[in-house]
Prior knowledge:
This protein is α/β, with parallel strands linked by helices. It is 39% helix and 14% strand. It contains six helices and five strands. It has a five-stranded mixed β-sheet, sandwiched between helices. Helix 3 packs parallel to helix 4 and helix 4 crosses helix 6. The N and C termini lie far apart (32 Å).
Amino acid sequence: MTLTQSLPVVYTAQSKHNFFCRDVICEYVLRNQAVPLNPFRIFDYFLGDRVDRNMIRRANNNCVRIADEIWVFGEISDGVFHEIRYALELGKPVRYFTLSTRVEGITEVAPHEISLEEEVERSVGLSEKGLREVIVSAAQ
Length: 140
């Protein structure tokens, strides 16, 4: 391996409830020979609300577009769901992982094994079954 060797770029999607795990997620991605684009490392926690949140979401969507793959960590929030759906529209591979405060505790899981945060159904306007159909379609 050379220092100029190309590595895949991975957008790391995670709930704002787990923003404190941003470093372990980046470590996990780097240890798996990819470059993390982590929104909470790029924009901290919505830049402390110094910028309109919709502008941050727009910037996140640009990162999704730039990335080669999307890796989802932990429970899926409404924002993460929208990132997954956008990634699928773009034909990007989406993978799912558990979340832990240690790299050793993170494992890849099948799409049907993921958990959804409670507010997702209400805010997205789909039933849990509809949400899961979108998520599972990423694996097909």
